[in-house]
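sanity check this record:

:::
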Amino acid sequence: MKLNLKFIIFLIYLTQNNLLLYSALPSQNTDNQWYISGRTGLSMLIKEVTPDFRFLNNEFKHQPGLTLDLTISRSFNEKWEPGINLSLYRLTGHSELPDFSAVNNHYAFINLHQLPVEYATVTFSLSAYWRYYFLNNSGKSKNRVYLRPYAEIGAGVNFFFTELGYSVFPPEGTSRLIYYKGTQKSGPGAGNVAQIVTGLGTRIVLPANIDMIVSFNADIVNYDCLDTVHNYTNKKRNHAISIVPKFLLGVIIPISNNDNSNRFLPWSP
């Protein structure tokens, strides 16, 4: 499913309007405040799943890679926190031989040399999400350390740049690159597809005014080519989705003052 800039603008517009709507509602014991958070951790492509929920065999030995997230959000009514998340991560993997289901089914996978291959994919995504906290913080002292577990779900668009090549030098006259998307001046441009984002985590509220966050997230990407290789069964493409879990650790910083809150900006005396 191809998306464009209009979809991104729509997501931002929808989220901002929801933020304004709910912040205007009367409430008690609220903590209506803007936050910015940064997280880092590891991500890895673990599985590709067909529309009829069949898990395909991995054609690579996938490796974990670095991921970075930047989020801006607003809390209201103690429980809810919608926001917008920017995410960047790198995926890699290798195979001793290019024994893929795409061989002779895709134009790039014809007459391959029986040599080790490896792929590298960099993705950039923009998503809007809703986060729900299971516990209130009403009445809790700012001098205590306590946990606020949450669940979240959202949707957005994923842009990816990927290439597959031989791990060793191929015979003379053969390009090292087998397939690429968005990494060369000529050829296919970067891909952009829809994704669903989900997550479970906890906010660690600290006596200081910068909190910590620990989360386990998963990007469900509507494409089967994050490892550069489409998947086929009986010469028919599966049109699978990719599942990319992420383990993240970071900090949350308030960026607006709130007279109803017993917490202050981190740079306040």
In short: The longest helix spans residues 5-23. Confidence is low (pLDDT under 50) at residues 1-5, 7-16, 18-30, 259-269.
